[in-house]
Fold this sequence. Notes:
- This protein is an alpha/beta fold and 365 residues long.
- It folds into two domains: 211 residues, no CATH class; 120 residues, no CATH class.
- The protein is built from 15 helices and six strands.
Amino acid sequence: MILTTALLITLTATAGPALHSDAKTTHGEPAQCTVKGYECSTSKTGIVIGKTGDLANLAAVMDDAAERYRKYYGTEPAQAALVLGGSIDAGLKADLDSSGFKTQLPWLTSEDKAKLYSSAIRTQIKAQKPDLSAAALEALVKTTMATLNKTGGNNSAVQREQGAVAHEFAHLWYMDAFWPKKDHEASHNSPQYGGAGPDWLDEMAAVLAENETLTSSRRSRLVTVLKDNPAEALWPLKEYFTMEHPIFRKIQKQMEAVQKEASDGVTMKTRVVVYNDEEYKKLIGGTGERDPSLFYAQSRAFADFLIEATGEDRIFASISRHIADGGTMRSWLRDVGKEKGLPTTLVDLQTRWDLWLQTRTGSVA
Length: 365
């Protein structure tokens, strides 16, 4: 069995030893932080805390992401804390809360993930080939890790990780600005992808905050896919505007499986699930289903389309406010579409979107 795909799943609970910080912050100003046994780096946007890692560089990444978020949404992102190592225990969370860090993101660095991947791969190979010698086992682990890393060199991997940090913080900033947690909790009793708003708008905020490396890869992916399968690759806008994020339920099943195994008192249980190509394809979609990962590429493309069509960087802020006030994309088009230089119906918007895609990719929509 060739192992080529790894899925990382994290589960958070509330118990565990506390790490105490005396960090104090004023919104928009660099935070001052001292964490015993930990390093920290502050910036205009917040703080990075960790034992290892390129903290100063990640703090700059947060600032860059915040600047992109401001450009497209016009609101000040909440002060942010990036905690390296994959978990935020109850003590540290309380300290960060009281210090004004409203958005908090636990983060596994590339080094952390590589260790988890390697351990998971080693365990799986042992189960499949119990008679393999130690030397042969380590050689196969090394080969498999190289396969997992084949998508790019070290610089590319670093840039992708930085883009992912920006992506995840933008999700949090967006939810805080347009669908605060109290509204989310009041309107939804079942698990969902992000905040209380439509999943496509939630994802839009995240892709707009990404760095050039991820942005370019999403644009390139779309062009390639549309040239191969232009008619069926993307979701029709009528469906796209109302659908659940296509990967959410698939990943949720994996998270539920991990949760069943989580023991009481565990602060965060991190599980790496390693699939071969056939298993991964089965996870993300069956025969006839669109590739869920194209949801990101479609979101990036629709952002480019609508910003270009309206000439407004903050067009998605306008849509978000309208929908947060109880409207829909259909009613937004009806009310302000003409003013924004857009069609006033979903049918006409779909036609214009199809033409734009054809011009950009050379595909026949």
